[in-house]
Design a protein that fits this description.
Layout lengths: L4 E4 L5 E5 L8 H4 L5 H6 L5 H4 L9 E5 L45 H27 L5 E9 L14 E4 L8 H12 L5 E3 L7 H6 L6 E9 L22 H24 L1
Parallel strand pairs: 2-3, 2-4, 4-7, 5-6
Antiparallel strand pairs: 1-3, 5-7
Length: 271
Amino acid sequence: MRDWLQVVRGSAPLIISLPHTGTDIPPDIESQLASPWLARKDADWWVEQLYAFAENLGATLVRTAISRTVIDVNRDPSGASLYPGQATTELCPTTTFDGEPLYRDGGPDAAEIDHRRTTYFEPYHAALRSEIERLRAVHPTVVLYEAHSIRSRVPRLFEGELPQFNLGTNSGQSCADALTVAVEAACDASGLSRVTNGRFKGGWTTRHYGQPATGVHAIQMELACRGYMDDPAEPPTPDTWPTPFHAARAEPLRAVLEEVLGACLDFANTA
């Protein structure tokens, strides 16, 4: 197993993908970047800590320690946009979510992108496929849960403040309605804001692997960071972002996420 690719195997019919929690950048790539801070600004900060309880549920966790600036393993490997006509970032991002240039000289060329795809993207998805196949061999139904977070306010990507819970099911195509309804109910019982298939409909992983007819149901959860860390309303700076994981603030959100993952397991075990 590669040292940047972490797989924790469980026996329950639930896989949690953590594609954006990494901050590692190889030195030869970091030397090309405009700023080490900018290159890590858009990480899904502390999400691996937030979901640490999932191992006790028997879930399988797949995580890359590599920064999304190197390659975004939740983008279409062909380079096609997931959100045509809307602001987004590429397979190998050249800007931050706020539109700031990541590279001093434009960014990686086609050969470099292909190298990163082979080195990082393909092994990550080989691991996901392997875990899906392993669990499908013993469970008729498996849920693939994409765990994400983002700052509550990113004006270039969306207006105003993002809801606390943002579910993506590729507009209902990546999982059964019953799973969506169960996860929505768990979120709504908290009294916190929630939207389904709003600005975030699910990335490439959700769209690619979510094939309900084959027993694989995929759903993406994009959390607003304010639920578990200080999330300043003003544009972030190296002095204000990222803020530390806030355990006391996170506890109510973690309790909701336990209900969410419980709903995923209940669905998988009874579908």
